[in-house]
Write a structure and sequence with these properties.
The structure holds two protein chains of two kinds.
Chain A (H helix, E strand, L loop, with lengths): L1 H30 L5 H24 L6 H28 L1 H6 L5 H28 L12 H24 L3 H14 L12 H6 L4 H13 L7 H25 L8
Helix pairs in contact in A: 1-5, 2-3, 2-5, 3-5, 3-6, 3-9, 5-6, 6-9, 6-10, 9-10
Chain B lengths: L3 E12 L7 H10 L5 E13 L4 E5 L6 H9 L6 E6 L3 E4 L12 H11 L4 H14 L15 H12 L6 E5 L7 H16 L3 E5 L3 H7 L2 E6 L2 E7 H14 L1
Parallel strand pairs in B: 3-7, 3-8, 5-6, 6-7
Antiparallel strand pairs in B: 1-2, 1-4, 8-9
Helix pairs in contact in B: 3-4, 3-5
The chains are: A mainly alpha, B alpha/beta.
Chain lengths: 262, 245
């Protein structure tokens, strides 16, 4: 057991340097040393938010308190999910030339993509809290519970990345199918509408959508100042772990088969 | 105990339309019952073993499966059939010029490659200057990697890779890097590593080089093992085979 843990620690130390170099590379590439670089990655969700606010406030915003924050919560979580999973999907193929010729653990490439998506999310999160303050919602210690859905979402994204990147190696059209999938998912994630127009039973159906869980958690804490019930916590973690385990199993099983398709 | 031992190693690829079509097509084909998998034997029943300190030359025409064999021995690929034992730390230098990032600078790429090859950050900090000097790229270190010529790229790759001190060294066509002067330098450097007692596998199209360096030779053709054994004998046979072609 001790030996096992020692070996594990050795493994992590061994690849620590590689991992940090990969993160640096992905980060530099993403922002390409341009002036707008990092500003752009904040500007783009803000513009999306602005358009949605202009269009939808008239329809859904009248009866919803803090509608801008309601929208922003949905957008924030959903774009993080979309960014991270899209990045993860391409991680293996983008590094095909390395994987083909050098014996390194393939998951490192995927996890490094997740880290750069997290950095992006972190930046947008700061803007989000600025909006929260401007909208007159007082800061509360309860906000720290948001770390929980964020952690779950990161695990969920990594799991999705495992599954998608494995599929992408074999099926190249998965990227188009996934685009359609995320679009549909966005519409059922209640980003710009509220679910209370539906009967309570139907409202529960929304919780079948993992991303909606994380969005609902954010809204509940930030807008209503209520920490969600225990079952909601369970769902957040349950979805994340289920997807992560499924992803790891797929990866482990196909790890060496990837070579035939890359 | 032998350092490298391969018993009936086979690698088969699944080819055909499979890799090119998408999920949608596969589903439709499966529904219609027209879905077929084609197999391609990249390696077929390879058996050989070498002792510590030996230098194995692998020869064969293009597409014989030499590179696939190197990937199997270095652990990048798993064989579909057969058993193997490779005892010792491996450094494999395959297709040196690939896998760099054109958008990063030469220096950044050097560190990334070092990390990929399993070097530590301290080691890279210490040896970076000698790497860039050996590659003769000092004045290019802050340039974008994509601005280098292909010769320069492989020079950098070789300079990083040759710092290794492994028990098993796998070289796939890497001794023909750069111009004449650099080639001499790189061969001398590799000889140093090999002379240090490393068991070496060398893939080369230069028969003269194989004759000069190898203690054993493996000849494969279209994935099949033609012969394995003494250098002079097999090189003579191979030369005859090439002439007849």
């Amino acid at each position: 057991m001790v030996e096992n843990i020692k070996a594990q620690i050795h493994q992590i130390k061994k690849y620590q340097f590689l991992f940090s170099e990969l993160v640096k590379r992905d980060f530099k590439k993403k922002y390409k040393r341009t002036v707008l670089g990092m500003v752009w990655s904040i500007l783009s969700p803000l513009m999306q938010l602005a358009v949605m606010a202009v269009v939808f406030t008239k329809f859904f915003g009248r009866n919803t308190e803090h509608y801008i924050i309601y929208l922003f919560s949905g957008n924030l979580i959903f774009s993080f999910f979309k960014d991270a999973t899209n990045g993860g999907m391409h991680a293996l193929m983008q590094n095909a030339n390395i994987i083909k010729n050098i014996n390194v653990p393939k998951y490192l490439f995927m996890v490094s993509k997740e880290v750069s998506a997290c950095i992006n999310f972190g930046l947008t999160l700061i803007i989000y809290f600025l909006f929260v303050a401007v909208d007159g919602i007082p800061f509360s210690l309860k906000f720290f519970t948001l770390l929980y859905p964020i952690a779950c979402l990161v695990i969920f994204n990594i799991g999705m990345g495992f599954i998608l990147s494995a599929m992408f190696v074999v099926f190249k059209d998965i990227q188009y199918l996934y685009e359609i999938f995320t679009q549909l998912l966005m519409y059922v994630s209640a980003i710009f509408y509220t679910t209370d127009i539906y009967p309570p039973k139907i409202q529960l159906v929304f919780f079948l959508n993992p991303v909606y869980n994380y969005i609902a958690y954010f809204r509940s804490v930030v807008i209503n100042g209520v920490i969600p019930p225990l079952w909601h916590h369970g769902l957040c973690l349950g979805y994340a772990l289920a997807v992560l385990i499924a992803g790891m199993v797929i990866y482990k099983k196909n790890n060496y088969k990837f070579m035939y398709y890359i | 105990m032998k350092t490298i031992e391969l018993n009936n190693i086979s690698v088969s690829y699944i080819t055909g339309d499979f890799a090119n079509t998408g999920l949608k097509d596969i589903l439709i084909q499966k529904l219609k019952g027209t879905y077929v998998q084609k197999e391609f034997m990249a390696l077929n029943n390879i058996t050989f073993s070498i002792d510590k300190g030996e230098l194995l030359g692998i020869i064969g025409t293009n597409g014989a499966g030499k590179s696939t064999l190197c990937k199997v021995i270095s652990g990048i690929m798993r064989p579909t059939e057969g058993t193997m034992a490779v005892r010792g730390s491996i450094a494999s230098l395959l297709e040196l010029g690939t896998g760099f990032d054109g958008d990063l600078t030469v220096k950044e790429n050097a560190f990334l490659r070092g990390a990929l090859l399993g070097y530590t950050r301290d080691f890279m900090n210490k040896t970076y200057d000698s790497i860039i000097e050996f590659a003769e790229l000092k004045e290019f270190e802050d340039r974008k990697f994509s601005h280098l010529s292909s010769g320069m790229k492989s020079r950098l790759a070789f300079s990083i890779a040759c710092l290794v001190n492994p028990e098993i060294l796998i070289l796939d066509e890497v001794l023909s890097v750069g111009d004449g002067a650099f080639r001499k330098k790189s061969e001398a450097k590799m000889q140093e590593v090999i002379g240090g007692g490393a068991t070496t596998i060398l893939v080369s199209h230069s028969l003269a080089q194989i004759r000069r360096m190898a203690t054993k030779v493996l000849w494969i053709e279209k994935g099949k093992q033609i012969d394995f054994g003494d250098t002079t004998e097999i090189c003579d046979k191979y030369e005859e085979f090439i002439k007849k072609k």
